[in-house]
Amino acid sequence: MKKLSAQAEALRQEILRKVQQFHSLAHGQPEPFEPGKSRIPFAGRVFDEEELVNLVDASLEFWLTQDHYTDAFEKGLAEFIGARHCIFVNSGSSANLLAFAALTSHKLGERRIQRGDEVITVAAAFPTTVAPIVQYGAIPVFVDVETRTYNIDPDLFQGALSERTRAVFIAHSMGNPFDVERVLAFCREHDLWLIEDNCDALGSRYKGAYTGAFGDLATSSFYPAHHITTGEGGAVFTPNPKLAAIVQSFRDWGRDCWCTAGHDNTCGKRFDKQFGTLPLGYDHKYVYSHLGYNLKATDLQAAIGLAQLKKLGAFIEKRRANHDKLLEGLAPLEDVFLLPQAQLGAEPSWFGFVLSVKESSGFTRNDIARFLEAKNIQTRTLFAGNLLRHPCFTDTPPDQQAFRVSGDLRNTDFVMNNTFWVGVYPGLTEEALDTMISAFHEFTNDRTS
Description:
Layout: H1 6-26, H2 49-61, H3 68-81, E1 85-89, H4 92-102, E2 118-122, H5 127-135, E3 139-143, H6 157-160, E4 165-171, H7 180-189, E5 193-197, E6 205-206, E7 209-210, E8 217-221, E9 234-238, H8 241-251, H9 299-330, E10 337-338, E11 346-347, E12 353-357, H10 365-374, E13 380-381, H11 391-394, E14 404-405, H12 410-418, E15 419-422, H13 430-448
Parallel strand pairs: 2-3, 2-4, 3-14, 4-5, 5-8
Antiparallel strand pairs: 1-9, 6-7, 6-11, 8-9, 10-12, 12-15, 13-15
Helix pairs in contact: 1-2, 2-9, 3-9, 4-5, 4-8, 9-13
């Protein structure tokens, strides 16, 4: 951070005080809630003056790319999760791409994932969990999910296994941890990589440990709908220093050099090494060990994230409390709705309240969704439902459809047709939650009266 003159520092402090005042005037007072009129979002940002102060402070430094706020944010995230390494990136989708790309690196030798290798996953997923598998020429092998937890069914692993299986890449659905114990046992037995898509589950625990610390690699998203936000942003976590270096290489244009922005010759041998068939001593800052990208985030985003991270514990507790309230309020409706169930041994940091319309209910998911939306209660389907039924797969010529389905996807199709979710994010008030519960009861009463 650049040292400022006394006059500049005094002006900086005055600006930051004004930012606090601005927050109080512009964002400090929530609008009064009016049932049926006020919008009840499925997700949203929750912030105070600290996020604005950090953002403006970072902008005044005008370094823009990654610097001390990024260092602090990465360190804080790693400590929270219990991971050795955290790499801040520009989105959760980029985090998924980088996590998978790392496993294709030549630096992993015989364990690298190559074209034609298979990766076990699910179709009831967000598409960017699956996209990197396809984009790197590997074969996604789709297995079915369980209802109520909406996670992969571990009983189906053995049937999906082949001599080409190299990895498992799955998410903790809606913040509900998958059966970590069984997934890890399967991966260890067959020497498979595990990537945890933890984008919807920051703060979830399985048997006391945070999700995101179990896999060889794990990912987070900080899009505004998620547990904390940096606007756009994400992270990759790993306990493995070699994988961390590979992820950073892919993120930073594929370069071999590990110098941080603004620093040169960290290794002290910038002009002394031989790489590939380049001339001896070719500038290490311009040596590329991978065909990478620029997927870095900025210090401005990290500045917001650092303030959000301080609130994460309170956010998690509020999400759980909101979920508990909805679960209690909707329990009388179990004859028509399949209500969510936490994985045994898990403490979810819920992303949303997910439920399914039973086939015997006499109405459809769209019926209840239209009713709730008319009441200004936002709803969302469980992401892709069944990704294989979307144009990205159905409109691909048959000779280019490189995937495999193990068994059937009966529950996945049930999710596609019957499942939806509503919000539990920390910005929801008790009035909003009560309004949601009343709306569900009003709908079902109208149907049965």
